[in-house]
Amino acid sequence: MTDSKKNQGLLAGVRIIESSLLGPAGVGMQLADLGAEVIKVENPGGDYVRKMAFPIIDGISLLHWHLNRGKRSIVIDLRKPEGVAAYLELVRGADAVIEAMRPGALERRGIGFEKMCEVNPRIVFCQISGYGMTGPY
Hints:
- With 137 residues, the protein is of the alpha/beta class.
- Helix content is 34%, strand content 22%.
């Protein structure tokens, strides 16, 4: 994609940090389709959707290619203090953060909304759960 095409779209100039697994990654996909810069943060093992569905293309599932099209990806270990610091540095330059994992996953790692606001008071925080905010799933 040429630089001129990258900078087009309704959301051109908007930066989104996405922490997602599986289907809820579709929200970031739609924002990327509209021109936002979406940076998907993955743990060192990667999003398991990379290997879970067929067909596999170049070692990665078609579902992963579909849900994460238009995004950039970075590996950060949020269990380590340097990983948390790196994540907060991404938040500093972002417009929004999408948490689409188990409810409260970022909060448990010390990266809740209040902490994000300390480094970026204008941050928009979106929490998505595929199975709701309570219950076994």
